[in-house]
Amino acid sequence: MLRPQSTATRDLVSLDGVWKFALVRDSLETEAPWTAALPGSLEAPVPASYNDIFLDPAIHNHVGWVCYQRRVVVPRGWTRDERYFLRIEAATHKGRVYINDTFVTEHVGGYTPFDAEVTQLVRPGEAFRLTIAVNNELTNTTIPPGIIRVEAGGQKRQQYFHDFYNYAGLARSVWLYSLPTKHVADVTVVTDVQGATGILRYDVQTSELGAGETVHVTVRDEADAVVGEAAGARGAVHIDKATLWKPGAAYLYQLCAEVRSAAGAMLDTYSVATGIRTVEVRGTQFLINGQPFFFTGFGKHEDTAIRGKGHDPAYMVHDFQLMDWINANSFRTSHYPYAEEVMDFADRHGIVVIDETPAVGLNLAVNSGFFEGVGKDSCTWSPEFINDDTRAAHAASIRELVARDKNHACVVLWSIANEPSTNEPGAREYFAPLVALARELDPSRPVAYINVMFANYDDDLVADLFDVVCLNRYYGWYVHTGDLATAEAKFEAELRGWDRKYGKPIIMTEYGADTLAGLRSFYNAPWSEDFQVSYYNMCHRVHDRVPAVVGEQVWNFADFQTAASHVFRVDGNKKGIFTRDRKPKTIAAVLRARWSQKLLDQGYAGTK
């Protein structure tokens, strides 16, 4: 799952832009829209979610397939002894690719990329019709899950179990790229530190090589000086006096893997940016490079007006500027893998990431509170809802997340699920194989899941399987609403219970209160900016009294869109520290001051 890049041996063509667009109103197979030009005059931007682009409610509320189509010309300089591929970085939640009249491939999973080889279907210098069909349907066997209901008139309604809008479409870039026949297929880098020496252990997978063809690895520093070399597809490079990648002080080496002919000619080259650092959980401490680390930051969302989940580099850079201003050193990719550009940016700027799969909504107890008639008399872990097929999809999402993000220095913790029902019978049987899989795929990083409030330390059935306790708690908001004195006592009692039972680091991965920007109150009324400040001050008093708490990621970075069917949401979730258009609420300055001291305590320079 190497991300395409332009090198001396590879070419890369962006297919981003405005594509023809059409809904599939019948079945995809019946309409077969890939066999001709799409009907109608609609056009849609790529990358972007399509839901908020158009004014037609039928498009906004559509459940099922849509099609994107454009004409593509293969560069005439490409040769017939190369291989050609398409790369679709995200198709939410299922994608199918067609070249002219031919089906090429299908991928399930809306937030990880997939490739389609088209070598035998296209020719250099010639044009072809590219159609990508995208389906947004969620069922009990998808990750995330959902239910589709068909109304009396035949219209489909999607019910999903996560509290953010189910944006769909081609939200990330699409590429056409070439590879040499003999090429680097995958690279895995795991770093270690021994004294002042940095160690890069690498594993290079290649296409089938011929007699005498070899792999050579070169490592360069940020000044482009060669600091290490090695021969062979597997090995280690030792770098004396290595500069470590640190939170707030990123440093990246470039590991270049080359396939060489028997005569020494370069057949392919691919570079991986890698930061040398270690991650460890020891007792109640989370250590990066052997030093205790305290997470300050956010749960976030890929969510902006009009674009939906469409990746936007301007918003990305601005969001990182806001995180820098507020002294946030980390974020969680709640509740799905983010665009690869975001991970690259975090690598370059020393921002720590908790990387999460799309496994959100595996909880009928939560769902029964949100949706009438859902989950009241059912078990989450059952043949009727979250079953063996769901777990297979969940396992696939873990494999694809690790395969894509394993080399990012910024990623220090895998989160394999958000708020599953881990106090119900069947939870351990469901999660134990997934935890084992995550550890097998990447033994170098700790593994976590995000615990929901219904599963406390007394009745949770899986917490011992994981390395870190990650808690989402809303004392003072969803429970004991507005009663911060009671909330404070209950919150502290629970944290001490987790510490006493498990003796592991505790990260508060969600805590917050909905707040309407501009609403002020002398009486600390819920929804006011004043209450939000008092709420966070209460939470932070508790955090400071429990030494096992090693992080606070508030919910949420910015207000975000939710389903219109959620009558308890007015134009979205308003728990943001910033509004959806990135204006600060009063709490932003309070967090900035608190986190400045937290970062100074960890030896950060340049805090605001």
Automatic annotation (TrEMBL):
Q: Does the keyword Ribosomal protein apply?
A: no
- What keywords are annotated for this sequence in UniProt? Glycosidase, Hydrolase
PROSITE patterns assigned: GLYCOSYL_HYDROL_F2_1 (PS00719), GLYCOSYL_HYDROL_F2_2 (PS00608)
In this chain the Glycoside hydrolase family 2 immunoglobulin-like beta-sandwich domain maps to 183-277
EC number of this enzyme:
3.2.1.31
User: Coiled-coil stretches, from where to where?
Assistant: none
Domain named Glycoside hydrolase family 2 catalytic: residues: 279-596
Does the record bear Hydrolase in its keywords?
yes
Q: Which InterPro entries match?
A: Beta-gal/glucu_dom_sf (IPR036156), Galactose-bd-like_sf (IPR008979), GH (IPR017853), Glyco_hydro_2 (IPR006101), Glyco_hydro_2_AS (IPR023232), Glyco_hydro_2_cat (IPR006103), Glyco_hydro_2_CS (IPR023230), Glyco_hydro_2_N (IPR006104)
Give all residue intervals belonging to the Glycosyl hydrolases family 2 sugar binding domain: 13-180
Looking up PANTHER family in the UniProt record yields:
BETA-GLUCURONIDASE
Q: Which family does the entry's similarity section mention?
A: Belongs to the glycosyl hydrolase 2 family.
Q: What's this protein's name?
A: Beta-glucuronidase
- Which organism is the protein's source? Sporothrix curviconia
- Source organism lineage? Eukaryota, Fungi, Dikarya, Ascomycota, Pezizomycotina
